[in-house]
Amino acid sequence: MNTHPAMINDADRWRSRDLAVLWHPCTQMREHPDALPLWPVARGEGAWLIGHDGRRLVDGVSSWWTNLHGHAEPRIAEAIARQARTLEQVILAGFSHAPAVELAERLLAIAPREPGRAPLSKVFYADNGSAGVEVALKMAFHWHRNRGDRGRSKFVALSNGYHGETIGALAVGDVPLYRRVYAPLLMDALFAPSPDAFGADDAEQRAEEAADALAGLLDAHAGEICALILEPLVQCAGGMRMHHPAYLRRARALCDAHGIFLIADEIATGFGRTGTLFACEQAGIQPDLLCLSKGLTGGFLPLCAVLATQTIYDGFLDDSRERAFLHSHSYSGNPLACAAALASLEILENDDTIARNRVTAAKMAALAAPFASHPAVADVRQSGMILAIELHPEPSERPAPRDIADKRVLRMYRAALAHGVLLRPLGDVLYWMPPYCIDDAQLELMADATRAAIQAAHIDAADQEPPACV
Ligand SMILES: *Cc1c(COP(=O)(O)O)cnc(C)c1O
C-alpha cells in the first residue's frame, strides 16, 4: 500500500511520543519498538483499523473481543452522543436513570432461560469484566454468610480457565503466564479438570469424564464451597479451548445437588460469539449468576452487568446494612455505557445479526479448512464466530530464541500484520474473532495472513533473517 511520507512521519511521531509516556497492557515493553511494531491507530471503520500512516488492518480479534458491529458504528456513536448531551453520569446509589433501567430490563428479557427454573431477575452493574467477576464471587460468598453458613468460603474453577486480572479473578483463573507470579497473594481456589475436547476422540465422553471429576471434587469438599465459576463452551484466554455442552448440563445439576451457585462467565462468549446469543443456551442451562462485559456495549465503552436470581437478591434483604451488598464502583451503570449497550442490542435484533453470523461462520470454516492438513497444525476448531487454529508445540529440544524478536508468537504476529491483519496468537493458537460485520474480502485477507503466520511459525528461529518491521 502506498503511504505518503508525511503520514509515515505522523505515525512515527505518535510512536515515539507513546513510548516516552505509555506503559501498555499485557505487554513486555522491552519488545517495543523492534520486536513488536507499535501501531498508532487514527480511526476505525467497520472491521478496519486505519493507521496514522494510512495503512489499513483487518481487526481479526475485535480489539480484544469487545467489538461486535464494527468500529465507529454510527448508530452506537449517535446513541452515546445523544446521551452525553442529556446525562453523562450520575451516582447509582439512591438515584436512577432511564438507560440503566431499560438496559436491565432488556438483559433480563434475553438472558438464558431454563424451563422450571426461576429466571434471572436482577442486574448489578460494574465497569469491566474483572470487576464483574469480583462481584459474582463476593455475592456468592456473602449470600451463604447471610444465611449463617460460615463454612462455605471456597470457589471451584476449571483448569485452563480465565476470569480477569484483579486479585480475586486471578485466584479463580488458571493461565500460568498471568497467575504464577501473584500466586502468593491469591486465595486458594479448587480446580476441577477442564472439559476441553482438544485431542479427544469423543468430546462428549471427555465432558462426561470431566464432570465425573467435578462430582468427586464437590463430594470431597461438601459444605466448603460457595460457587462454581466457568466459561461456558469456550475457554478463550486459555487458548480458545472448546468443550461439549453436556459438561454444562452436568455442572448445572451438580451445583443444584450441592446447594452451590453456578457462575457463568460469558464476558467473552456473550452476545453471539459462539453462534447463539449466549453460550449457555446451547446447553439449555441457566446460571445463578451471569457475568457480561466486553461485547455488552458493542465494544464502545467499558461496562459490566452481573445478572442474579431472585433467590440471591433476597438473601441480602435485611434491616442490617452489613448484610447488604455494599460493593460499588464510581462509574457503576454509567449512562453513556448503558446507552451504547442499548443501541448495540437493538442492532443485534434489527439487523438479525445472529442469523447473519451463521453465514459468516460457515465462510470462516470453509476458509480455514485447508489449514487442518498443514504439517504445523494440530487442530482447527470453531464455535460460531470464534475459529482457532492450534499449532503443534515447538519442539522442546530447540534452544530458546537468542533474540526476543525471534519468539514464534511474535513472528506469527508480525507476519499477519505485514499481510494487513491484526491476529494476536495465544501461544500456539492463532484465532479469528472478527467483528460481525466482516465482509468476504476481509475474511480472505484474514486467511492469507493466517497462511503467512503459520509459515512464519514454521521457519526455524536459528535460520531467521532479522525481523522486518511493518
Ligand atoms: C476478558 C475476560 C475477563 C476480564 O474482563 P476485563 O474487562 O478485561 O477485566 C473475564 N472473563 C473472561 C472470560 C474474559 O474473557
Question: In the CATH classification, which architecture of the largest domain applies?
Answer: 3-Layer(aba) Sandwich
Rounded Rg: 23 Å
Largest sheet: 7 strands, mixed
Structural class by sheet pairing and helices = alpha/beta
Question: What is the number of helices?
Answer: 14
CATH class of the largest domain: Alpha Beta
Note the overall shape: globular
Rounded average pLDDT = 95
Instruction: Give the total of domains.
Output: 2
Low-confidence parts, pLDDT < 50 over ≥5 residues?
466-470
CATH superfamily of the largest domain: Type I PLP-dependent aspartate aminotransferase-like (Major domain)
Query: Can you tell me the CATH topology of the largest domain?
Result: Aspartate Aminotransferase, domain 2
Strand content: 15-25%
Secondary structure: number of strands: 16
Ligand kinds? pyridoxal-5'-phosphate
How far apart the termini lie comes to: 11 Å
Spatial strand order of the main sheet? 4-12-11-10-7-5-6
What pattern of helices and strands is seen along the backbone?
Answer: HEEEHHHEHEHHEHEEEHEEEHHHEEHEEH
The helical percent reads: 25-40%
